[in-house]
Amino acid sequence: MDNAEILKNIIEKRRSIFPKSYSTEEIEEEVLAEIVNSANFAPSHKRTKPWRLKVFRGEEKNQLGEKLAEIYKQTANPEAFLEKKYLDISDKVAKSAAIVTICVNFSGLVPEWEEIAATAMAVQNMYLTATAHEVGCYWSTPGMINHLNGFLGLDENQKCIGLFYLGKI
Question: What are the transmembrane regions (predicted)?
Answer without folding.
Answer: none
